[in-house]
Design a protein that fits this description.
The complex is a heterotrimer of chains A (335), B (330) and C (304).
Chain A lengths: L3 H4 L13 H36 L13 H10 L6 H13 L14 H36 L4 H15 L2 H15 L13 H31 L2 H8 L4 H13 L1 H15 L3 H6 L5 H10 L3 H29 L8
Helix pairs in contact in A: 2-14, 5-6, 5-8, 5-11, 5-14, 6-8, 7-8, 8-10, 8-11, 9-10, 11-14, 13-14
Chain B lengths: L10 E14 L2 E14 L3 E5 L6 H9 L6 E9 L2 E2 L5 H7 L4 E4 L13 H12 L4 H14 L5 H5 L8 H13 L5 E5 L7 H17 L3 E6 L2 H7 L2 E6 L2 E7 H6 L4 H8 L50 E4 L2 E3 L8
Parallel strand pairs in B: 3-8, 3-9, 6-7, 7-8
Antiparallel strand pairs in B: 1-2, 1-4, 4-5, 9-10, 10-12, 11-12
Helix pairs in contact in B: 3-4, 4-6
Chain C lengths: L8 H7 L10 H11 L1 H23 L33 H37 L1 H15 L3 H12 L4 H11 L2 H14 L3 H8 L4 H14 L3 H20 L11 H10 L6 H28 L5
The chains are: A mainly alpha (335), B alpha/beta (330), C mainly alpha (304).
Bound molecules: adenosine-5'-diphosphate and magnesium ion.
The site of magnesium ion (MG) has 5 residues of chain B, from α1.
């Protein structure tokens, strides 16, 4: 979504110290440690928060089963410790979580949440990573071309395509592509995972990649235009360098910094599955498990996936922070 | 004073009727207009004028570095060859080789994420078939020429690890790598501390003494002009209003604007508490220049004709030009 | 030995094409720049038309959103039958339904944005104005919430709150989408609170709530105007995602997302059911994005 560009903070450029050689590795470790000291409480708070929200919800998971015997209900609740005080429930949940046990699904009583995640995550992650990879490649290329030909026919063309990618929602493009390539042309299957067969993956990946291409093209163009105005690019030109060197060596790194900021959370986002895409193409990913869990009040599943997502986001943001260091030697390491 | 270059030397830089226009939101701005100047080998040519008078843009046009909304017209000859609006390829063969530019702000004019050495070597490698080692040696040699201590260490550092003065030295060294015939320095000392300013000027003085490079020194600091320039052009609202040998312009200014500039220099003999006299009135608005002489609204000697006709730049003393309707002072 | 008065920055500014010789006020100039941006103006006109038609659709067509006609089930778009956009499985007029859906989608998009705007401005200005420990705490809270996936979070909220009505839907969207707004407002507040008029207001002992309401909030809201405009299409999109998944607007009401979801079920034999709602939703999203981009360029011309 286009407003994402606004979220991308610029790299602070006023920090004026730099470290070399051996020190750099140590500083990096320190930075990771410091970030983790913030990240771990954050994950903890998210666990508490989602736990509380779900506990506050009116109605229990077994409400739907209307004719359920009160005695069986009581047994069920005991089995899931729903009759205990809330802090005890939380503590039990939390300590289990630390051992990698996300609990049992309320609905599929023979399946653990960990099972559901282990089965669904590879599907979601594969689709998502391919989509973001294609989105990054396509978007960066288009964005650079647009920036270099600013206000030209090419630029307007690229930006129109990008805007289309952003404004047309996936639940419009996905059925349309299914209709055209699946039903009319009969080229590709329109539903199912097929054990990860390539033809089954093409449409979901394409539908997911289109908006990413649009967003990344816009961010790239903005970043590149900003840098192309920089004094040091003028210096590079004044030295008589070929335009290709001016672009590759003197602008790309700084121009793509906003893309890196965007990619971090975006990768976490696509890896946990596109709720809509998985629904439309009938993929057994965790996005679909999440929606089903939410609709059925299957709280352990919902919480498990939320926690997974939040953890991924935090890890990706850490990676983004570290890569700023590689992109720009001025970046402050102390924060 | 200085050894004045002989006037029959072939000119290194020759601008004829140079003009720069910018397309803008509220109309076209003529930032530079009808500029004629000649710079010869070994000469240091000063360009002075208040901020916004078109000094930088005139030489950006020479370098072919105008912003996208800018258009240059007229003629610019470098060593006798027309280069104004030349194709990028032609310009790239000249920039950094035959002419170099030193930018005003050393803090932002070096690429922040490339090492000093790499930024400098790439210029050499771009323009000559030279190995990396040879390039490195030449870079170290030039870094020492501009008196950068511990040049070897600087080579591997990033720009932000250097002080402003050091960065400006790097800029100068970078400009000198290919021994250009013309060196244009755009306010090379403005962004620096006073003590550093003197050191940088010293480098230019050394250049002048030891090489035959033609130097264009853009500045708004008359002190810089006085210390190293042979000739001066004074710019006002995009035009040259006075041009001549430095001594002539200093001791016998032909334009009231120049006189105002000279008066506003605080002198040591003055009462230190008294403010230097500043030229009164508003700087000119390029979008809406007054008819006639552009300086008229601020001029103490304005006459009726000044509101009607733009005074031409005429030779009022031998080799000393001024653009003013006032009679030549005897 | 620098010439006094020569290195006067104002001199340069005075000669800039944007400032000098131009008597228009900055707001007026921004407005003119906006009006010269063709796609932004087109966006504005489209949204205007869409809103007006949605409001007056009962006058335009005698049929109601639920008027069922069994002779025309899944009848394709046609001028003769009077069903310009065709009909759905229940023989309901898609033209009417699309505009009724537009009402709901636009309303939810606007209301959710308004909620996000209110929370963001209040939260951000308080955080920025008081600063110190309160500020760091409030920003920490933002950081934590940022790590929560937006759509996931909204889905949890919507399902937890149970009652699936449009009130819940836009409240939930608004309650999640204010974070960036709060950050922008906080940053702006930090600079506004240094201004003389705020200092003066403090000096004469105006209560903090009044200072916030009278001096801070009006001055920081302009900074988020572009973001607000771009948030509207995002929220419309989120609403349609929810409705598409069956978690948002419920029958008998309808929204574009819901229509698209119903349309994609029938897309094989009645593609118009997918086409028209998708077209309207997409055009609306385009229009809002164009307006937002136009505003940004108008307010910050350097980006062009
Ligand atoms: N890209 C541009 N677009 C419009 N006007 C410009 C542009 N660049 C410079 N100018 C205008 O040209 C005039 C001359 O600028 P410049 O040559 O930089 O002045 P200075 O004498 O201080 O170096 C200024 O009034 C400036 O506003
Ligand atoms: Mg200048």
């Amino acid at each position: 979504m286009c407003f994402m560009a606004a979220k991308c903070g610029a790299v602070s450029s006023n920090a004026l110290f730099h470290l070399k050689g051996r020190d750099a590795g140590r500083v990096m470790l320190k930075l990771i440690a410091r970030r983790l000291m913030v990240a771990i409480p954050t994950v903890f708070i998210i666990i508490v928060l989602s736990f509380l929200i779900i506990k506050m919800a009116p109605g229990g998971p077994f409400d739907a089963e209307a004719e359920i015997d009160p005695e069986i209900l009581a047994n069920l609740e005991r089995a899931y410790y729903l009759d205990r005080p809330i802090w005890e429930q939380f503590w039990r949940y939390f300590t289990n979580l630390l051992q990698g046990d996300f609990g049992q699904s309320f609905i599929f009583r023979d399946r653990s949440v960990a099972d559901i995640i282990i089965q669904g995550f590879p599907v979601s992650a594969q689709i998502g990573l391919w989509a973001i990879f294609i989105g990054a490649f396509g978007g960066i290329a288009l964005g650079i071309i647009a920036a270099l030909r600013k206000n030209s026919f090419v630029d307007y063309g690229v930006m129109t395509v990008a805007m289309t990618g952003i404004a047309v929602p996936t639940f419009v493009t996905a059925p349309t592509m299914a209709l055209v390539f699946g039903l009319y042309l009969g080229l590709l299957p329109i539903s199912g995972w097929g054990g990860g067969a390539l033809p089954n993956m093409i449409l979901p990946i394409a539908a997911l990649a289109l908006p990413k291409i649009g967003v990344i093209a816009r961010i790239t163009r903005g970043g590149m235009l900003e840098v192309l105005r920089a004094n040091y690019v003028r210096t590079a030109r004044s030295k008589g360098l070929r335009e290709s060197i001016v672009i590759w060596r003197h602008t790309l790194r700084a121009g793509l910094t906003p893309v890196v900021s965007y990619l971090g959370p975006a990768i976490a986002g696509v890896m946990t599955g596109s709720v809509v895409i998985e629904q439309i193409f009938g993929l057994p990913g965790i996005g679909r498990s999440f929606v089903e869990g939410a609709v059925n009040r299957d709280y352990p599943v919902v919480m498990g996936i939320t926690i997974l997502y939040a953890t991924l986001i935090i890890i990706m943001n850490l990676i983004v922070d570290l890569s700023y260091r590689l992109l720009d030697p001025r970046v402050e390491m102390s924060k | 004073m200085h050894s004045t270059p002989r006037t029959d030397d072939p000119p290194v830089l020759e601008c004829r009727d140079l003009a720069v226009r910018f397309a803008g939101d509220s109309g076209e701005v003529c930032a530079v207009n009808g500029v004629n100047l000649t710079v010869r080998a070994g000469e240091c040519f000063g360009v002075v004028g208040e901020s916004g008078s078109g000094k930088s843009q005139a030489f950006m046009a020479v370098m072919g570095l105008l912003a996208e909304n800018g258009r240059a017209s007229g003629s610019v000859k470098l060593n006798g060859r027309e280069i104004l609006n030349a194709p990028r390829k032609t310009l790239n063969a000249i920039r950094g080789v035959e002419m170099s530019f030193i930018f005003q702000d050393p803090m932002s004019s070096l690429t922040p994420f490339l090492r000093i050495g790499d930024q400098m070597c790439e210029t050499l490698i771009e323009h000559s078939k030279i190995s990396r080692d040879e390039a490195r040696n030449r870079v170290l040699e030039v870094l020492e020429m501009v008196r950068i201590p511990a040049a070897k260490r600087r080579f591997g550092q990033f720009p932000h690890e250097l002080s402003g003065g050091m960065r400006q030295r790097v800029m100068i060294a970078q400009a000198l790598l290919c021994k250009p015939a013309l060196l244009i320095a755009d306010e090379p000392t403005t962004a620096l501390d006073v003590t550093v300013q003197a050191e940088i000027l010293d480098i230019f003085a050394g250049l002048k003494k030891h090489t035959n490079t033609a130097i264009v020194m853009v500045t708004h600091d008359l002190g810089v002009i006085a210390s190293i320039c042979d000739s001066v052009a004074v710019m006002y609202a995009g035009r040259i209003v006075e041009r001549g040998a430095a001594e002539g312009v200093f001791y016998d200014p032909q334009h009231p604007y120049t006189r105002g500039l000279l008066r506003s220099i605080p002198s040591i003999t003055d009462d230190p508490n008294a403010d230097a006299q500043v030229i009164g009135g508003q700087p000119p608005n390029l979008l809406n220049l007054p008819k006639g002489c552009h300086f008229r609204p601020r001029c103490e000697n304005a006459m009726a004709i000044c509101a009607q006709e733009l005074p031409p730049l005429l030779e009022r003393k031998p080799q000393h030009f001024g653009a003013c309707h006032l009679e030549v002072t005897p | 030995m620098t010439v006094a008065g020569l290195d006067n920055d104002k001199a340069a500014a005075g000669a800039k094409p944007d400032a000098g010789g131009d008597s228009r006020s900055p707001a007026r100039r921004a407005f003119d720049r906006f009006m010269r941006n063709k796609s932004a103006v087109a966006g504005l006109i489209i949204i205007g038309l869409m809103t007006v038609t949605s409001i007056f659709v009962p006058i335009l067509s005698p049929k109601d959103i639920q008027t069922v006609s069994w002779e025309y089930v899944l009848s394709p778009p046609s001028l003769e039958t009077g069903y310009w956009f065709g009909t759905d499985v229940n023989g309901r007029d898609l033209f009417v339904r699309t505009f009724y859906a537009g009402r709901i989608s636009l309303a939810i998009g606007l209301l959710a944005t308004a909620i996000a705007f209110m929370i963001g401005v209040i939260y951000g200005s308080i955080s920025g104005y008081f600063g110190g420990a309160l500020d760091s705490f409030m920003m920490r809270v933002c950081d934590v919430l940022y790590a929560l996936p937006t759509l996931f979070f909204i889905i949890i909220l919507v399902t937890v709150l149970g009652a699936k009505n449009i009130f819940i839907v836009f409240m939930c969207i608004g309650a999640v989408e204010w974070l960036t707004m709060a950050r922008i407002v906080r940053g702006q507040t930090l600079s506004v609170k240094q201004k003389e008029y705020v200092e003066a207001a403090k000096a004469i002992g105006l209560p903090t709530s009044k200072i916030l309401a009278r001096y801070i909030v009006p001055n920081v809201t302009s900074a988020v105007i572009v973001y607000v405009t771009l948030l509207i299409p995002v929220n419309i999109l989120i609403e349609s995602y929810l409705s598409f998944l069956g978690l948002g607007v419920q029958e008998p009401l309808t929204s574009w997302g819901l229509l698209i979801s119903q349309g994609s079920v029938e897309m094989e034999n009645a593609p118009w059911l997918l086409f028209f709602p998708a077209l309207f939703l997409t055009v609306t999203l385009f229009a809002f994005n164009f307006i937002g981009d136009g505003l940004r360029d108008a307010l910050d011309p350097k980006d062009r």
